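Incident log, support desk, overnight shift.

02:14 A customer reports that sequence design results differ from what the structure should imply. Their input is reproduced verbatim below. On-call engineer (initials T.W.) acknowledged and began investigating.
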């Protein structure tokens, strides 16, 4: 629970299921927690040090929980770890929140490609987007026992409430915002180069942490942007920054279903994104395709940011209601009824 997208998704899903009266046990492999988990009634943190010991501990925990109250559904993001535990259940689903096939083939990591393909073979899989499902079936070429596309759930009312909070901005000028970890795949370098091409008088706020932050700060200095780019670090409430921004910008070269684009639409802020192979085009549709830029192309991204600043998007409920917690939680509950 360190704050990454998949971790927030699991926490949100557990919370929403609890609200419906379900007994939910959230099991963490590591005791690394930055998110607020206080609302989770039943949370377990594996305490063993080695992976084999953790696997044994997981088996014992699941076995005990199943005897206390028969488990209806198990959802996991870690195939190999749960498999190693040896715990068997007819309704184990593995969520996939990234485009494994695209990434591994692009980097020619054949050994890892074959390993991941083997892990998902004949398993029940939940793909976070249609693009991820395509990636699994046609690029990774897995043969799952079953595959369902279920988007991440969003509490629309809660996000809007948090977005209305007062925040102290570091400057008075209008700004655009990027929310995401400083990982190579996010391509902050492309974002900075695009920002340097803008003619509009706006600032850039970068929200997030990561190992490449210092490298991006050096590039910022090299491009002469230090007086217009603000590194805000981790923010408990990024929605308020998104709400007040002129646009949210995503510069990634690969995504599955980027949360920040959906959150931006929910709070009414225009979202601009690179048109990654999967993900953004599944969100920015229904008339929002004009806010998609070419991947790894600073000039194209700059043009789309300028377009967004001059022509804010006409955001409607159709753009985000399909991601609501009510719709998504219902799909998870339907998995309990499968044969």
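02:41 Re-run completed on a clean worker. Output:
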């Amino acid at each position: 629970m360190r704050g990454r997208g998949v971790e927030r998704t699991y926490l949100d899903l557990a919370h929403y299921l609890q609200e419906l009266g379900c007994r939910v046990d959230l099991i963490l492999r590591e005791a690394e927690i930055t998110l607020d988990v206080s609302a989770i009634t039943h949370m377990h943190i594996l305490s063993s040090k080695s992976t084999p010991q953790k696997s044994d501990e997981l088996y014992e925990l699941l076995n005990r929980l199943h005897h206390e109250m028969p488990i209806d559904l198990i959802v996991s993001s870690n195939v190999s770890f749960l498999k190693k535990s040896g715990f068997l259940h007819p309704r184990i689903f593995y969520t996939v929140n990234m485009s494994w096939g695209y990434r591994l083939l692009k980097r020619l990591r054949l050994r890892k490609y074959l390993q991941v393909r083997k892990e998902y073979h004949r398993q029940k899989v939940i793909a976070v987007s249609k693009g991820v499902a395509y990636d699994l079936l046609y690029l990774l070429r897995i043969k799952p026992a079953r595959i369902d596309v279920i988007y991440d759930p969003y509490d629309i009312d809660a996000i809007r409430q948090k977005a209305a909070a007062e925040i102290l901005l570091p400057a008075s000028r209008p700004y655009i915002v990027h929310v995401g970890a400083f990982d190579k795949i996010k391509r902050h370098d492309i974002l900075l180069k695009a920002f340097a091409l803008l003619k509009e008088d706006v600032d850039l706020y970068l929200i997030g942490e990561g190992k490449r932050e210092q490298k991006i700060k050096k590039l910022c200095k090299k491009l002469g942007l230090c007086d217009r780019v603000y590194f805000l670090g981790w923010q408990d409430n990024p929605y308020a920054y998104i709400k007040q921004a002129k646009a949210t910008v995503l510069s990634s070269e690969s995504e599955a279903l980027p949360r920040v684009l959906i959150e931006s639409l929910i709070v009414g802020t225009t979202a601009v994104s690179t048109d990654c192979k999967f993900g953004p085009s599944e969100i920015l549709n229904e008339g929002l395709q004009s806010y998609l830029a070419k991947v790894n192309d600073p000039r194209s991204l700059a043009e789309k940011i300028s377009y967004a600043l001059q022509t804010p998007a006409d955001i409607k409920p159709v753009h985000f209601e399909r991601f609501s917690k009510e719709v998504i939680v219902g799909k998870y509950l339907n998995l309990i009824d499968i044969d």
